[in-house]
Amino acid sequence: MSNSSAPILHLTTAALLFVLFSAASATDHIVGANKGWNPGINYTLWANNHTFYVGDFISFRYQKAQYNVFEVNKTGYDNCTTEGATGNWSSGKDFIPLNKAMRYYFICGTGGCFNGMKVSVLVHHLPSPPRSSMAVEHSSDGTTTHGGSGLVGVVLGLFLSFWFGLGLGV
């Protein structure tokens, strides 16, 4: 292979890797959905209808002149206090990464916590990938489906085909 094709190969490899990693992107969970971060909303119900994974984001949307967000421990959550807070935000459109598998506690520090502006979310480790890219699944109605690895598998397959097809394999 000549050196003149190396830049094209690197560009192709970079593009394929970008698509591969973009397909496994994080979820942005907007607290309260279209109701946002406001008093009188049942955020426990909202959180129970979501599954949070390491790498996801939790977003708070609110009037920045009125409210804010503090990450606190369980005691701060239970008592609506910001003492010992580990983070605070006040932009009105806050994106907070959930980087660890643990329970997170968030409250409003301007008094809104006493009116329900608090949410606790449990963040899980990412699920393990399937053991086989062509796993056979049996449903409860007796039908059998053959699942693939989806877009990530297709992109990975294309990447490997290009890589080994161009004689770049080990």
From TrEMBL:
Secretion signal, residue range per the UniProt entry: 1-26
One protein family per Pfam: Cu_bind_like
Membrane-spanning ranges: 104-126, 147-166
InterPro entries tied to this protein: Cupredoxin, Phytocyanin-like, Phytocyanin_dom
Similarity comment: family membership: Belongs to the early nodulin-like (ENODL) family.
Record's protein name: Phytocyanin domain-containing protein
Record lineage: Eukaryota, Viridiplantae, Streptophyta, Embryophyta, Tracheophyta
Presence of the UniProt keyword Transmembrane in the record: yes
